[in-house]
Amino acid sequence: MKYKVREKxxxxxxxxxxxxxxxQQSTHYCPGCGHGNLHKIIGETLDELGVRENTIxxxxxxxxxxxxxxxDVGNIQAAHGRAPAVxxxxxxxxxxxxVISYQGDGDLAAIGGNNIIQAANRGENITVIFxxxxxxxxxxxxxxxxxxxxxxxxxTPRGRSVRNEGPPIRVCELLAALDTPVYxxxxxxxxxxxxxxxxxxxxxxxxxxxxxxxxxxxxILSACPTGWKLPxxxxxxxxxxxxxxxxxxxxxxxxxxxxxxxxxEYPIEDVAAVLGLDDDTGDVSPDRSGEGEEVHEALKxxxxxxxxILLLGEIIAEAGMISGRQVTWLPSYGPEMRxxxxxxxxVLSSGRIGTPLVSRxxxxxxxxxxxxxxxxxxxxxxxxxxxxxxxxxxxxxPAAVSEFAIPATQIAxxxxxxRVANVVxxxxxxxxxxxxxxxxxxxxxxxxxxxxxxxxxxxxxxHKGMEAVKSAAVG
Amino acid sequence: xxxxxxxxxxxxxxxxxLADCRSFYGYPITPASEIxxxxxxxxxxxxxSFLQAESEVAAINMVYGAASTxxxxxxxxxxxxxxxxxxxxxxAAGSQLPIVVVDVMRGGPGLGNIGPEQSDYFQMTKGxxxxxxxxxxxxxxxxxxxxDFTILAFELADRYRNPAVILTDGFIGQMxxxxxxxxxxxxxxxxxxxxxxxxxxxxxxxxxSIFLAPEDLEAHNTVLREKYRRISxxxxxxxxxxxxxxxxxxxxxxxxxxxxxxxxxxxRRAGKRYGLLRPISLWPFPTDAIRKYIHQVDSFxxxxxxxxxxxxxxxxxxxxxxPVNFYSRSGGVVPSTEEIHRAILDGKEEVLS
Lengths: 475, 353
Ligand SMILES: Cc1ncc(C[n+]2csc(CCOP(=O)(O)OP(=O)(O)O)c2C)c(N)n1
Fold this sequence. Notes:
- By secondary structure, chain A is of the alpha/beta class.
- Chain A has helices spanning 34-49, 83-93, 105-111, 113-122, 162-165, 171-175, 192-210, 225-228, 232-246, 271-275, 309-322, 369-375, 408-414, 421-432, 438-448, 455-470, and strands at 55-59, 74-77, 98-104, 127-132, 183-188, 216-221, 250-254, 296-304, 326-331, 341-349, 363-366, 384-388, 402-406, 473-474.
- In chain A, α1 crosses α7 (192-210), α11 (309-322) packs across α15 (438-448) and α13 packs across α14.
- The longest helix of chain A is centred in the middle third of the chain and has 19 residues, at 192-210.
- At the A-B interface, β1, β2, α2, α4 and α10 of A face β1, α1, α3, α4 and α7 of B.
C-alpha cells in the first residue's frame, strides 16, 4: 500500500492563535477522537481547492465548539443546533464565500433538527459536515439521537430503549426524503480506506458548493473513545462492528449531474424607485378648504367586513394628508378583520394628534345596524352621524347630534355596483365637513382604487353622495 | 422627499431600506406580520436578502450569520416570537454583533392575544436572554418614528456593535400616518476590523461569545460593561411636552404617550398643570431627566399597558422622594383619555409589587 505524505495544511496553521493558554500546537480533542482526524482532512481539502480565504466555518456547540481554534479561515461560533441558520444568513449575505456548517449529532439531529431539514430543503448552497459519534461528547456522554439501541450512556443507564427513546435517527436517509439536497453521503473514520473515502466525499461536497450547485452534507461515523469508554483502537472497531449495520455507508443522493430548473431572473431596482421617493402624493392640494382654520375631526367608521370600511377610512386619511392635515388611521385588526364587523378610527387635525383612539367621535359613519347601535351614543354633542339608510331604518340619534340618512347601498346599486356604497358615504361626509378638498379626495381615491377603469364610477358615486346629503338631514 | 400614508409596520421597512439593511429574516405573527410581508416585497426587488425563516429561532440566527459578515441585518416579530429569539439576542450581545430587532408587542403571557400591550418591557430592557448584557431600546410613538428610529437603531447598533431594539406595540404598528421618506447618509463603519466576510482580509477575525477561562469571560464582561456605561452616557433620548410649569409629570411611552399628550392638552384646557415626559430610549433610561422634576412637581404618574414594568425604572429614578402614582390596563385593553384623567385625579397606586 502506498501512503501519500501530506504536509501540514495552511488552512490549519502550526500555531493555533485563537486557542487560549500556552499549548497552541495540539488540539483539545481526546486521543482517538474523530473530530481531530476530520479537521485535518478539512484543512487539507480547503488547501487543495484553494478556497481558504473564502471559507467561513461555523463552529457548533459540542466538542467541536472550538473548531475555530484550528482553522485559518473566517470563523463564526453559533448557538446549539443553529449552525445551518447562521450559515444561511452568512452565505446569503456573502454569496462568494464558502460556508461550512460543522455539527455534531446532538447539535444537528436533536436540538437543531428543524434547522437542518429546512436548510436542506431550501437548498442552501452550504456544506454540512455532520459528525455522528452516537453520543453527546461535550456534556459527558449522554444519549444522542444517533445512540444505538441498547447503547449505554449516562442518560440511558439500562441501554437505549427503542420503546422509551425511539430508534436512532438516520440523517442521510431522512434528508434523502427531500427533493432539494444535491449531495448526501455517509462515510466513516475507521481505517485508511474509509478515511480516503471521507476525504473524497468532503472534497466533492465543497466542490459542489464552489460550483454553486446547492446543499451538500457528509455524515461521518466517528469515534468518541472517551464517551464510549473504550481505548482508541477498540473505538474504531466499535464503529465497524456496531454502527455500520445501523448506519450503512454510501451515497444517498447525488444530483450533481442533473439539470437544475432555470429560475426567473428579475432586474434589480433602485431604492428611490422601490420606495417611490420621487412620488408627489404628499403634495398639498391647492383647493384645500378651510385653510388656516383649526380642525379636529375624530371619525369612527363601522360596518360589516367586506363593505370597504377600512378602505373608506384610508381614503379619508389620505385625502386629509393631501390636504395638509395631520392624520391617523387605526383599524380594528386581527380575527375581527376576517368576517363579522369592521371598524376604524380616523383623526384629521390641523395640529399634532395625541391619541389616535376615538372613544368619543364627532362623526360616526355607520354602514350597518349593529354599528349604529354600538357607537351612536358615543358621538359628541354637536357631532354628526351618517348612516346607510338602505340598511339601517327606524333608528334615532342622540338629541344634540345631527343625523344624515344616506341610502348609500341603494344609490350604489342604481350605479350598477353596490361596492361603491362606501364612496357614496365618502361623498356625503365630504359635503358636510371642511377638512379636505374634493381634488384631494379624488387624488386619494386614485391612489387606493387599483383598477383605474373603476375611477369614473367612483367619481359618480362620490358626486351622488354629495347630492344625497342635501336631502338627508333627519330632523 | 415623499410623504406617504402608511402603517407603522411598513414604515419600519422603509427605514430599513433607507438604512441599507441588506438582510431581513422573519416569521409571521400578528400584529407584526406587515413588517415581514413588506420586506418580502421590497428586499428582493433591491437585490437584498429576504427569507421567511422556519421559526423565530432560525430567523434570529440567520440575522446572526448575516451580521457576522458585516452587513446590516434585522428581524421583526411580536412578543411570543421575541421570547424565542432571546437566546440568539444574547449570543449577538456576547459576540458584539450589530443587529436590529423589532418587537411589535402583543398581549401575554403565553399566547395571550393580538391586542397592544407593553409587557415586553422587562424582557427587552433588562436583558431577556441569559448573561450580563443590554439592548439599546428605542420606543417610537408614531409611524414617522417607526421609520426614523429603525434608521437610528442601525446607526447605534453599528456604532456600539450591539443589538438595538425597536420596542413598539400593536397600535403603533397597525396605525397609518403620514411618513416623510428621504435618503439617508450612512455613517461608514470599518467592518473589516471584526467581521468575517469570506475574504482573505478577515480570516483572522472570529465571531464568538465563548470565553472558557473565568478571568477571560470576566474581562469580556468588563468590556461590555464599559460599553454599556458609554451608551448610558451618550444615548439617552426623551421628549418633554408642556412640562415647563407642570406640577404633575405624566410618564409613558409608545401608544400610551400619544394618549397622555391628549390628557395633558385636555387638562391644560381645564386649567390643570400637567406635563408629559416620554422616554424614547427605554434603555438607557432617562433617569436623570426624570429626577430633574423631583423638586418641581407634586407627583409623578406612570401609565403603561402592563402591570408594572416601566414604573420600576421610574421609581428607581424618583427614589421615594415624591409619590409615583400608577395606572395600567392589559390584555389588549387601551384606556380612554377620560379613564386616565380619572385615574390621575384618584391618585391611586395600583402597582403589583
Ligand atoms: C441550548 C443549549 N442546550 C444545551 C447545551 C449543552 N450542550 C453542550 S454540547 C451538547 C451536546 C453536544 O453533542 P453533539 O452535538 O453530539 O456533539 P459532540 O460533543 O458529541 O461532538 C449539549 C447538550 C447548550 N450548550 N446549549
